[in-house]
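[#protein-structures] MJ: dropping Purine nucleoside phosphorylase here for a structure pass
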Amino acid sequence: MITESSAEVARAAATVIAERTDAATHDIALVLGSGWGPTADLIGETVATVENTVVPGFTGAAVAGHTGTMRSVAVSGSGKRALVFGTRTHFYEGRGVRAVVHAVRTAAAAGCQTIVLTNGCGGLNPDWAPGTPVLIRDHINLTGESPIEGANFVDLTDLYTPRLRDLAREVDPSLDEGVYVQFRGPHYETPAEVQMAKILGGDLVGMSTTLEAIAAREAGMDVLGVSLVTNAAAGISETALSHEEVLEAGQAAAQRCGELLSQIVARI
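AK: finished. structure tokens for Purine nucleoside phosphorylase:
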């Protein structure tokens, strides 16, 4: 269950966000991973921008390709308000699981009933060229951790909401889907670890998202997960891995990914 201290900090953060954005509640939240930064510009009009550092429990961006702000965006054509986080706390930063899922719990406290979790990842399918968006249909959490504290047995059977995946495919019928495998990081996976993930049923490998998705389900939110394949996973191609490659692939695919999410969010 969400501990009282975690809930209190999330409520305090939501209060500050409401004051800074002049919006009592928000409807949908988006967490933008590597390569997804421009998405907020395409969803609708940014009504307010809030520095993370003025909101309880948040810090500035720790990874290149992320921004240390959150935005309140009026979603075009829907009358809804989106809360867009330009960065996330990664598990490998060593700040603890509560910090990793704080944005999710804050979004829930702010009234969001749906959350869209995005990331940049390595692809195991050689047909997925860098810049390919893939829906997450399930995940394997290899962090050895859970955001749930106490005897709260949350059902994760349909963690990534089927209705939202169907809606995404209505927007883009070419979208594939796969199983996302989260490693602890920050080092990239070895070729042997990638093959292990493949044997376990994985299609995508990365260093985020699963803990956030679990926290979102605990909070009763619908979850849509979308990965941007920024590179072939270790051992799938002969190219060495680098964060610069991740950023370059994200920049090249920014327009397509932004348009995709803007259409999906408008329909939710």
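MJ: nice. The two ends are 27 Å apart (CA to CA).
AK: one more thing. The longest helix spans residues 243-267.
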